[in-house]
Amino acid sequence: MKIVVTSVFVDDQQKALQFYTDVLGFVKKNDIPLGAASWLTVVSPEDPDGTELLLEPAGHPAVGPYRDALRADGIPVTTFGVDDVHAEFERLSRRGVEFTQEPTNMGTTTTAVFDDTCGNLIQFHQVTA
């Protein structure tokens, strides 16, 4: 068994697609119309056949309270791996990404947390040990 799709709830799928592709650097994998929304996924250009990130519409009534609670506590909804947290922090900062946590050493990992402009805090990390 392996993870093939995971999701983040987003306020606006097209805005999310723009951020996740143009700013973060992912590539669109699927955009399958399903009425008012789409099955819209992105993947890492380094692993185009790897795990897909579904940009899931945030319309379900449980999503708002869930995301509000996580955000209030500063908890990211997911984590992405990077080779160099400091370089990625600098790259995304230059692109206007707002960080809620600058690169921070946590012992065996260094992490940073940013706002994805679509309702979520996202963390990226680098294993350092």
What sort of overall outline do the alpha carbons produce when their principal axes are compared?
A: globular
**How do the helices and strands follow one another from N- to C-terminus?**
EHEEEHEHEEE
Biggest sheet descriptor? 4 strands, mixed
Provide the low-confidence segments as ranges.
none
Question: What gyration radius follows from the Cα positions, in whole Å?
Answer: 15 Å
Give the DSSP E fraction (strand runs of 2 or more residues).
35-45%
Structural class: alpha/beta
In the sheet with the most strands, the strands line up as 1-4-3-2
What's the rounded overall pLDDT mean?
97
In percent, how helical is the residue content? 10-25%
Number of helices: 3
Kindly state the number of beta strands: 8
